[in-house]
UniProtKB/TrEMBL annotation, chains A, B, C, D:
NCBIfam families: RhaI_grampos (TIGR02635). InterPro entries: L-rhamnose_isomerase, Rhamnose_iso-rel, Rhamnose_isomerase, Xyl_isomerase-like_sf. Signal peptide: none annotated. Keywords: Cytoplasm, Isomerase, Manganese, Metal-binding, Rhamnose metabolism. The keyword Isomerase applies. This is L-rhamnose isomerase/sugar isomerase. One of its GO terms (molecular function) is L-rhamnose isomerase activity.
Length: 393, 393, 393, 393
């Protein structure tokens, strides 16, 4: 296959026409491991500066027009002002992420806590998030439940599920008409013996119990080793409940590295499954987001690299000859079918994407253009004093 | 805690009164790895001899009154005769296991195969199994689906789910009034890229679509590393769909070692979750089975050891002071709650169980009694000539 | 087997007579995950208070007479005073742990950094640690190298090994006559793509190159899933290079939970291998240490529980009938040999250990005694104001 | 980067000029899992037919001029005749692989067995292999030790190491002047609790003890999940002991799929490390071999695909701009250094390689050429009757 074939070119252009990737406000702040958070020059000191950084990613890629907010890290006095600022910068507010892991009350759980008062507090936090959604025009409430146990016997696995169902019901009931609740699962961390929503099955069952507006979030770093993630994508799409992706990559745990950095072939397989079900189209309702930590690399550049990685992988997925693939599959041609997939993966789409960016008035090489723009030097010079943003703010 | 406390003694006796463990007919035949099947003296040459061996396990433990059959390995001309023979030996026929992995037609799938004719063949095989159920009085049809893919793109993940749903529907429709369909999931092997029922979520969703008589089988060796199995137990019980266990143990893959041999604390935690929900009682409908391969150890003795391991672990689970545990959990006493669990686990229940066996006219030490019985020497002497049973027959 | 057999009692008493477990100063400070560090009442505010807490563990268990220090967290003006204070409290200073992960200069490495100046800084830090050893009487310099890479290509894997060898040589050359250098390995974290000392092989090869005073530290939480840790123990003992253990437990990653909490049978197998080679005796030179984080549980109590867990597991390992085991192994009696091990593991040794504590004037139930002592309430009342210790201090 | 740059073209041509991949005789026979071996039409029935198939791979790729033999599977009356036949077919005999897993005597071990007579038998088997080396001109004796334990306590971990060292010493002593002993390690399977050579550290230590002619074999499927294989490559090269690769790919266990099929980026990283140390040149002494099972795909075609995958990945590794990479690494430019690696990986080298094949008189598309050759139909028609080769013969 060659990426210069006109049919192929067109297929990629059409496929990517309305495909966008949401970026997280927290990717521009400092982050790290339990051992150390290294600070970097130019890191934002407030939500406005985070939005400004996010807007740079969109400016150079043309593919990331939304920025997720995280409450309370992105609390501001007037969310309308923040939304207007975002619009000025050329982006809009995406999903609102709640935080159930940094309040002292949540040491032993939040929505699943044995104490009703703590659960009520956690539910109330989501009501605040829903207010932010109304104020910013956000449609997605993203809930990652960090609750879990460190020791066997510490609490009842079963009771925590019942409490969770009850808490989620209360949150769900408060959603606006056009709001969605996106429930994320995670295999382990920050608790080690068990997590209360450890897998897609648990998340999906809670969503099914809640109603049509509850959907599952798949974070690519939140699985046991060896898990076939594209299979989960297929399952969630089959049940109409894939609400969003949190893209990143990992070698062993929830490493939160740049998407496509650890296993680009896995990313391609996931996006192939997406394309097979036309879930890359906006009508699918799947919100493609990044959720990463740039611990040691420059942050805006890391986000640009990540967006490009998703675009390149998606372009390859769009290259796959679906009809030929189906025919080979039905014929039981193991190597032929696999070969069609690998042919697309092995094709270099970077020139094609550069051409298409150029057509749209975007830089052929977004990384080089960003570096040449002087933005990084500017923020390093400007953002002196104040408190650098991080996971604590 | 001491196991000599009369309250404790009584709790264990009551808890184990009706608790039984089903043993598999194939545990007495030769088994091995892809590298080698080592043969052992005295191995059965037909289903009757397998049943005879299974009956020994019950004779010495008093806890394994049923034996699972596997079709076609246990095909006989007259299943009524086999059932009657089992009754003579003091056991009955348990679940009927279908086989979807040894027919040449199934190389690329069975119930999920792209070719409708192959799927029809696989469905028909289950109709034969249901006939065996009618003939033997078995109530459980156990389906482990070995279907899967070795290479990305080899077939459509999504289409295979649709085909599976359709095939299962046909099997389900043929069940007798009081029959159950038990659907087992497995993380990997015999296919490596993806399995068509790789996890509890997939199995449960198919069961929910089928109807009330479809339940999930949890094989303790069929998970990714780090998976919290007792969490899955809690989930399946919460949804009323835990149909059966396949007990065994593993260090890394589906090692099929003796249950309790690799991680006895995990076995205890699983059974603790069972006891917490009263699922050890027959009314729960959970069928506790062994599914193991004795590649290098004596087979009947390996089964006796396994049954004892489950009983000992269950006895420990019954020791847990449920009220104190609940109180500690509600109080957020992490170490107190964990300590109550560990106290039970650390208690030596072997003397207590020996006492209770003695009361029932069973040997205090079933392993020693079996070895002293001369059975192993007898079968080694008697079973000369013929074809030793194995996974092929 | 019964723990009341006089021979057995004696074997355990003798085996434990000189067996001790070193506790870490940092276990009493606050710790957590990258998501949150929860603070607890009564946490120490300086190294003296840490030593005071550590002394409590020894007071109630009689088995933890040494406390490891961590530099710079435990920097004091006068180490002699700190050592004297420890002696007053009934304990002594154990290993000195260097810190290569919290200086801003170390973002891309310390002893392996591409920049010679950073490596020199990291080497100099160890010279400071060696000074502390001279001042406190410590004999062990423990080096955990957190260096690694997050992205493929980020640095040369090979060059980093050469730099590491050179840096370690400089540290080794500065050791005192009776000092040892203990080099720890870790599979992953805080870097995700590669660690510079990820496995025992790497650590051992560096130690062999350094000389006789360099030995390997085995942290039980620092391995890939499925790794057989007792095999590594056997290998390191075979080569005379097992310098120390960092005990803790984990379900998936480096969870740093209480030793024995996640897989007590694994702990037993490790200690069985230790006992088989008489490495529990002080003459072996193996330093048995705890390295844990008590994120959600009371800290002193968590340490006491951990010390007891090691003692109980060690007592079980001492119960194993070595001659009978050897005979069964040589006879190829798979189930017999395994059964001898399981017999010891299944025996309840807690009463025996309580008896032996009582003989030594120690409390039968150290946890209960500690709780009754009022120490926890006292420190919660006393330690108000100041900065609670944590990983940053 | 573009693959059409003349400098790049030259670098690839030079780098691949003398790079070859050895293929295994057993890849053309039937293979499978413990559940089922599916047979395929045209499978060889003797070693000569295996060699004929192997020669096809070389005929179409020009890159696989050697074929490994396996004893006893490839036993013939006259090895000189077999070697001459191979030469006629355009290939030569590569490594001789011993078999320590299929003799009934080896159930509990071979070179490590507790019984001296079994060890002697296993040593004697290697003397036969060395005879085959003399007769065929092979220089490499490849030893994969499948020995291990299924149950804790089953045998002494330590004693087995001592026995292994002794057995290997005897084999080593029998090597010819220009022979090498290649010792392979494997994480798990066919034993599950422990393997006697489970990791590179164990293999290397035995090699170091044996002498200069003993080197380590790295099979890419023989590691725990998350293991960084290129790090091991770097370590073994650093110590001058990387003797050979067994290439294949895996998703979870030792899946033995086609190399490059599961994680092509990992293959690239491994070969990048090889190229960085010039270990792709024959002078390095590294023997690059395939070791795969084609359970469901056509076998000769599967081998051709695998050879092409290695060549394409090696070509990409040769594309890396070593000087620019070194500069970025020394500058601490995380994203720049990673970007240089990714640039090479993302480049499509297939056209370049097709050009270079054409220059050498080889087909541009070896798969298409092989399919067009009619060879597969021919062997399917010719090889009727007789016993198809598999792991048993």
């Amino acid at each position: 296959m060659t990426a210069h074939d006109p049919d192929v070119t067109l297929r990629v252009r059409d496929g990517l026409a309305d495909f966008t990737i949401e970026v997280p406000s927290w990717a521009y702040g400092n982050s790290g491991t339990r051992f150390k958070v290294f600070s970097q020059p130019g890191v934002p000191r407030d939500p406005f500066e985070k939005v400004a950084d996010a807007a740079q990613v969109h400016r150079f890629t043309g593919a990331s027009p939304r920025v997720s907010l995280h409450i309370p890290w992105d609390r501001v006095d007037d969310y309308g002002t923040l939304a207007a600022y975002a619009a000025d910068q050329g982006v809009s507010v995406g999903a609102i992420n709640s935080n159930l892991f940094q309040d002292d009350a949540y040491m032993l759980g939040s929505l699943t806590h044995a104490d009703k008062a703590v659960r009520a507090k956690a539910v109330a936090h989501h009501l605040e998030c829903i207010e932010v959604m109304h104020a910013t025009g956000s449609k997605d409430l993203k809930v990652w439940l960090p609750d879990g146990l460190n020791y066997p016997g510490q609490d009842s696995l079963r009771d925590r599920q019942e409490r969770l169902a009850d808490s989620l019901q209360q949150v769900y009931a408060a959603l606006g008409e056009d709001h969605r609740l996106l429930l994320e699962y995670k295999f382990f961390e920050p608790y080690f013996y068990s997590m209360d929503v450890p897998d897609w099955g648990t998340s999906l069952l809670h969503c099914l119990a809640l109603g049509d507006k509850a959907l599952v979030v798949l974070d690519t770093g939140h699985h046991a080793p060896g898990t076939n993630i594209e299979f989960i994508v297929a399952q969630l799409l089959r049940h109409g409940r894939l609400g969003a992706f949190d893209f990143n990559s990992r070698f062993y745990a929830d490493d939160d590295l740049m998407v496509g950095a650890a296993d680009p072939f896995q990313l391609f397989r996931i996006l192939h499954e997406i394309v097979q079900q036309d879930a890359h189209l906006p009508s699918s309702g799947v919100n493609f987001m990044l959720d990463q930590c740039h611990n040691i690399e420059p942050k805006v550049q890391g986000q640009i690299r990540s967006v490009l990685n998703v675009l390149e992988s998606m372009a390859k997925a769009l290259l796959v000859d679906r009809e030929a693939l189906k025919a080979a599959q039905l014929a039981g041609d193991v190597l032929g079918a696999n070969g069609l997939l690998m042919d697309a993966f092995n094709t270099d789409v970077r020139g094609l994407l550069a051409d298409q960016r150029e057509e749209r008035g975007l830089p052929r090489d977004p990384i080089a253009a960003y570096k040449a723009s002087g933005y990084q030097d500017q923020i390093a010079a400007d953002r002196v004093g104040g408190n650098q943003a991080g996971w604590g703010a």
